[in-house]
Amino acid sequence: MSDSGVAGVNVTVPAFEFSVRKKFEFVSTAYLLAMVAMTGRVNSSPWSIFAQGEALFLGGEGGEDEQNWVDVTYHFAARPNEINLTVGNISGVAKRGWDYLWVKHGQEVVGDRVLQVPEAAYVEQVYPEANFNALGIE
């Protein structure tokens, strides 16, 4: 924040990135298309150790091994849900892991200065949801 207004800053958002590897005897085209459709989505219900909205599917990769089994590696990132955030004098803000929180600011005069103060906090869903249980991994 400056005397003339609120300034932005880029902050690295902490996230746990991990991969899961699984071998299949056969993978259908429908399964591969489902993986494509789930890429860039968050979990719509509890999945593995993550609550709804905490896991983001980053996509997968794979190929066949020497025995013609399909070896698939799934990539994910996870961020915890936050259920009781405080922004300025606004409390009780709930935000799922991959949702976006933004703040509307108003002006408050303090002495001879005009300050930008949080007026409202909004949480927006950025990523669509998908049923990660359809991947068949835990």
Question: What are the secondary-structure elements, in order, as H or E?
Answer: EHEEEEEEEE
Poorly predicted runs are none
Shape estimate:
elongated
End-to-end Cα distance, whole Å, is 44 Å
Strand order of the largest sheet: 1-4-3-2-9
Number of domains: 1
Give structural attributes.
138 residues; mainly beta; five-stranded mixed beta sheet; 1 helix; 9 strands; 7% helix; 49% strand
Secondary-structure map:
Elements: E1 16-24, H1 29-38, E2 41-43, E3 55-64, E4 70-78, E5 82-87, E6 90-95, E7 100-110, E8 113-124, E9 129-130
Parallel strand pairs: 2-9
Antiparallel strand pairs: 1-4, 2-3, 3-4, 5-6, 7-8
What can you tell me about this protein's structure?
This protein is mainly β. The protein has one helix and nine strands, in the order βαββββββββ. The protein has one domain (16-133). The protein is 7% helix and 49% strand. The strands form three sheets. Strands 1-4-3-2-9 form a five-stranded mixed sheet. The protein has a two-stranded antiparallel sheet with strand order 5-6. A two-stranded antiparallel ribbon has the order 7-8. A hairpin with a 2-residue loop joins β5 (82-87) and β6.
